[in-house]
Amino acid sequence: AGVRHAPDGLARAAFDRIGGYAGRRHGGPEQLRRNLARVVGTTREQVPDDLVADAMRSYARYWYEAFRLPAQDLAETAATVDVPAPDRARLDAALSRGKGVILSLPHTGNWDMAGVWLVQNRASFATVAERLRPESLFNRFVEYRESLGFEIFPLSGGEQPPFGQLAARLREGKIVCLLGERDLARHGVPVTFFGEKTRMPAGSARLAIETGAALLPVHHWFTDAPGSMIGCGEEIDVSVGVEAATQALADAFAANIAAHPADWHMLQPLWESDWTDRQRARIVGDA
């Protein structure tokens, strides 16, 4: 509550300092450095310290803005987000077909802020939320995102599996938004990402194939505070099948992340070569 109502300049500066400190202390988070090494095409030792610090400042900004969103005027907040005219046109063209639109994006910038722009300027949308423990934490998380205008389906433990519920929304001509660059489980599709093997969720491509909805890669990144931007890429061709469409989505993510590496908030192991023994055993066992 304190962050929500503190003076913006002071609170934002405090989070920026905390992020910068975390990014420089002992070279910053090790896994973040390893992940950024793939993005900039170097070794972990050669990743610029400034990039790691900027990435942690960006991550701190995400949390700062997430804490404050529920207390903000959402229309005014959405006005700080810029979407170039060609990107708006791609989104509107897809919506005009009436078959639904799937917006798939990586963990970049502030995906909640991107969602607020969408609700305020186009329409509400459906998405999924990973079930958290304890249940009270999950419920607060769902209430928070519903307060922003999002429709939330639990990824597990709900009355129905989310795939069917999302497909129903798409058949109504509505929008579904899904985070799409990390799925280290049996349903993940093997892809090459920045030249190395990993897995990404199949859900976006599967939904598009089953419902006829358009699948568009989306990217959100920060500009000078409090500004930010959303890019909406060309529609992914899903006629090639789930695997090839997911690889095309991975390629779109990679191009956008490479353009804005500091705003990619991936602090966990992503690539196969970084998997823990436990992750590898689970994935191989599931396969």
What does this structure look like?
This protein is of the alpha/beta class and 287 residues long. The protein folds into 2 domains: 2-69, no CATH class; 74-286, no CATH class. Helices cover 49% and strands 16% of the residues. The protein has 12 helices and 9 strands. A 7-stranded mixed β-sheet has the order 1-9-8-2-5-3-4, with helices on both faces. It is globular and about 50 Å long. The mean pLDDT is 94.
The spatial strand order of the largest sheet comes to 1-9-8-2-5-3-4
The average pLDDT score comes to 94
Element-by-element helix/strand order? HHHHHEHEHEHEHEEEHEEHH
Report the major sheet: 7 strands, mixed
Number of domains: 2
Keywords: Acyltransferase, Cell inner membrane, Cell membrane, Membrane, Transferase
Main location: membrane
Subcellular location: Cell inner membrane
GO molecular function, one term: acyltransferase activity
Write the topology of this structure.
Blueprint: H1 2-5, H2 8-24, H3 30-40, H4 49-68, H5 74-78, E1 81-82, H6 85-96, E2 101-105, H7 111-121, E3 125-129, H8 135-147, E4 150-154, H9 162-171, E5 175-179, E6 189-193, E7 196-200, H10 203-211, E8 214-222, E9 228-232, H11 242-259, H12 277-286
Parallel strand pairs: 1-9, 2-5, 2-8, 3-4, 3-5
Antiparallel strand pairs: 6-7, 8-9
Helix pairs in contact: 2-4, 9-10, 10-11
Summarize the structure.
The chain folds into 2 domains: 2-69, no CATH class; 74-286, no CATH class. The chain contains 12 helices and 9 strands. The chain has helices spanning 2-5, 8-24, 30-40, 49-68, 74-78, 85-96, 111-121, 135-147, 162-171, 203-211, 242-259, 277-286, and strands at 81-82, 101-105, 125-129, 150-154, 175-179, 189-193, 196-200, 214-222, 228-232.
